[in-house]
Amino acid sequence: MSVDKELLKGSTQTLVLTLLARKEMYGYQLIKELELLSGGLFELREGTLYPILHALEAERCVRSEWSSGDGARQRKYYSITKAGRAALKDKKVQWSEFRSAVDKVVFG
Predict the structure, then answer these.
(1) Which of 62, 86, 100, 103: disulfide with 56, CB 3.0–4.6 Å?
(2) Residue 72: is its pLDDT beyond 80?
(3) 72 exposed, middle or buried (CB, 10 Å; 0-12, 13-18, 19+)?
(4) What CATH number was assigned to the domain covering residues 5-103?
(5) In what order do the strands lie in the sheet with 75-80?
(6) Chain mean pLDDT for the chain
(7) Residue extents of the structural domains in the chain
(8) pTM of the model
(9) What distances in angstroms separate CA 69 from CA 11, 76, 89, one per listed residue?
(10) Which whole-number Å values give the CA distances from 77 to 26, 27, 42, 63, in the listed order?
């Protein structure tokens, strides 16, 4: 099943922050983890993910660091900040209220 991209658009920051709250990751790893955990429903492209990460960095919700662990090639790892954790908490509350309201309208 495919999901309308407009539905995903409003939740991508929340999804990215949620994954980064679990562990630091590099971009491609975030894409694959999101795809795996959603059962393939969420398939972000790099052209979608990196602007989200850059916006979160500008808001100081995420920080990045170049690293080459275990002799692997250099990768930019992203991690959530204290401000990011606070923003995620707020986003989860907003999401819960939004989902509840949509369910009331759609399902009665």
Answers:
(1) 62
(2) no
(3) exposed
(4) 1.10.10.10
(5) 25-26, 75-80, 62-67
(6) 92
(7) 5-103
(8) 0.90
(9) 31, 11, 30
(10) 4, 7, 21, 8
